[in-house]
From TrEMBL, chain A:
GO CC field: plasma membrane
Similarity-based family: Belongs to the binding-protein-dependent transport system permease family.
Main location: membrane
CDD domains assigned: TM_PBP2 (cd06261)
Keywords, sorted A to Z: Cell membrane, Membrane, Transmembrane, Transmembrane helix, Transport
Subcellular location: Cell membrane
Protein's name in the database: Sugar ABC transporter permease
Domain ABC transmembrane type-1: 100-310
TM region(s), chain numbering: 42-63, 106-125, 146-172, 236-257, 289-313
Coiled-coil spans in chain: none
InterPro entries listed in its UniProt record: MetI-like, MetI-like_sf, UgpAE/MalFG_permease
The keyword Ligase is annotated on this UniProt entry: no
Superkingdom of this protein's organism: Bacteria
Automatic annotation (TrEMBL), chain B:
InterPro entries: MetI-like, MetI-like_sf
Protein name: Carbohydrate ABC transporter permease
A GO BP annotation: transmembrane transport
Transmembrane regions: 36-58, 105-124, 136-156, 168-188, 208-232, 287-306
Membrane topology: Multi-pass membrane protein
SUPFAM superfamilies, sorted: MetI-like
Species the sequence originates in: Bifidobacterium vespertilionis
One GO location term (cellular component): plasma membrane
Amino acid sequence: MSVNNSAAASKPRKAKKEVASGVPTTFTGKVAFHFSRYWQHWLMVLPAMCFVALFAYVPMYGIQLAFREFNPKLGLTGGKFVGFKYFQQFFNDPQFAQILVNTFRISLWTLVMGFFAPIILALLINQIGSRKIKGFVQTITYMPHFISTVVLVSMLNIFLTPDTGLIGRFLGDQSLLGVASAFTPLYWISEIWQHCGWNSIIYLAALSSVDTSLYEAAKMDGAGRLQLIRHIDIPTILPTCVILLVLNMGHVLGVGFEKVYLMQNTLNSTASEVISTYTYKMGLISFQFSYSTAIGLFNTVINFFFLVLANFLSKKVSDTSIF
Amino acid sequence: MSTATNSAQYVGAPKLSSDEIPFNPKVRQQKSISDWIVDIVIWVILAAVVFAVIYPLWFVIIASFSNQAAVSAGEVTVIPKGVSLYGYQTMFSDARIWNGYKNTIIYTVLGTALNMVVTMPAAFALSRAEFKPRRIIMFLFTFTMFFSGGMIPSYLLMKQLGLLNSMWVFIVPGAVSVWNLIIARSFFETSIPEDLHDAAQIDGLSFFGYFLRIVLPLSSAIIAVIGLYYFVGHWNDYFNGLLYITKQNKLPLQNVLQQILLANQTNQMGTDTAMTGLAAQQFADQIKYGVIIVATLPLLVIYPFLQKYFDKGVMIGAVKG
């Protein structure tokens, strides 16, 4: 009905064009027309779609393993349905509380510190007048981003070696990596060391869009350096900050598996066992496939919940959202 | 309403400045004392940041060339001391390193090539407004960034596909990174003028032809950036080797590094078994410094060439998020 109306309303203008391009009216005709016109578009997207379907959506379909008893003969989806048995097993696991607390502790520290550090760095770099020095500082601070996790953790290891390490020689007889209470600070500080510079790019990009006449006008009114930052720079990057915060919230429980796993040892495991490492150990070390899948699903669902929550809040507060 | 108040404010203030104080950008205002202090604080902090970032890296480099006794004693601080190439010699005689290196080069080159071939056309097609299904396709792609099947379902899938202990597990499953696809799509949306499309159509170019002959040559910045992201991702990949590979001769460099650097098997690396305690530790350390340098070298080599594209590329991604 409404379609007819709009078609009738725009007839005088559009009639000519439709005749020219020959848009059919039946459904199959429309589909055929669409593909005859856009088959090249489809051909370009199709490989990517196939890869995503196979390697992202097929495993998603396999999530039902969390609700089934794994049976090697019947494969991913053939086992007996057991409901929430494996989730209950996880909640009753003696390590459950510890793992959850560890995961939250590490990720919240990293989230908060890793959120503010690049903003501060970008505001500072933006204060540099000379283009050359600015470029130099950026080049240097981006560099660690490209180091692999294995190398980073090895560097931590060597530097913290007691007696001989660059840092370890000042810190007594024990490596900090063997101290449970030092695990979280080591994690987020090294995280900032590695990624702070790189993550500041996005803010520097936003800051470069500031109209310089704003600065001049503010200076006329007697604003000092700090006031310029406070009243011009910070409001400029605020929307970017919000978006990044929302995106990061989606990873509240998604502490990077690799780094935690590589930093782990028997001495610090009370503070370093997190959901992702536990998933790995249950699944691929002790081969409890269903149990491990359930833990992984629990993790994914909580992450997703936080992402949606953060997105909702930012929509309310600042009208910025990612979807 | 808001425009009214804006213009009301606007009438008074600028008139004063434009009529009575002629603005001349070349005349700098005098810096106040507080501004000087702020300046100094900013410079001190930035100098400290630069030092904190660069020194550990520099230290690894000089330590890898120095005499290990001197390194352990803390005598090596700014330049190498008592030059020794023991670490490099031992390392290069270790077959695991060579094999890992060879594997990683193969995985990285093939992987990055597939990544580009799959990602770029898809990103371009999805950037075209006339292609209506793009919204739903984009949603299906983006959804996988936040929701995934998890470790075990993926593992079982790889097993079923026969990808365990196969080199293809490094190349095929990660063919599309949705994040990179979004960045590339934003680039095509914002940086390729629509007029070009019209011109190409008038000249009778097909959609493929338009993409290959006109769009790609204009996209060197985004190709460099996305290529770099993929390249680094493959080069630094540790996760796939850990999960899917159990045969030593298929392991990529990062997993070999982990064995050498973190497993603390001092004796395996050819250090004399007669050496114990501190001496063994020192030699093991020198090998580690050398290994770190050799493993990171390729990235350090391409870094300066691609650096000019970083700001551009990341900015493009930033706009759309």
